[in-house]
């Protein structure tokens, strides 16, 4: 079920945007005209990925520097071994919706 999260204008390019739903943390990352939604907590060890940084299309965890592909959630660089879950995103009338 798609849930409204924010307006497109609230997102800054290559900057993780944090939101919570039902006690879970998620992030949105805008890359150009595309928006991606991923789990907000690192799969290696508890770390809030909205405090990480994005270089090109790679998200780096702020704790142990695990890296994830923003487009797929797949691990690029350990120590993380499990990918981040990716969620479907749609934009309607300037609002961002995520299927969580």
Automatic annotation (TrEMBL):
Gene3D superfamilies per UniProt: Rieske [2Fe-2S] iron-sulphur domain
UniProt-listed InterPro entries: Rieske_2Fe-2S, Rieske_2Fe-2S_sf
Cofactor(s) this protein cannot do without: [2Fe-2S] cluster
Record domain Rieske: where: 3-98
Keyword Repressor: no
Alphabetical keyword list: 2Fe-2S, Iron, Iron-sulfur, Metal-binding
Full protein name: Rieske domain-containing protein
Species, as recorded: Candidatus Marsarchaeota G1 archaeon BE_D
């Amino acid at each position: 079920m798609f849930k409204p999260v924010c307006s497109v204008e609230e997102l800054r390019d290559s900057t993780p945007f944090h939101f919570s739903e039902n006690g879970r943390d998620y992030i949105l990352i805008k890359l150009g005209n595309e928006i991606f939604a991923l789990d907000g907590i690192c799969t290696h060890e508890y770390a809030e990925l909205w405090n990480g940084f994005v270089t090109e299309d790679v998200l780096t965890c702020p704790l142990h520097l695990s890296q994830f592909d923003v487009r797929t959630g797949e691990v690029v660089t350990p120590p993380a071994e499990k990918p981040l879950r990716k969620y479907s995103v749609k934009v309607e009338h300037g609002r961002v919706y995520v299927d969580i």
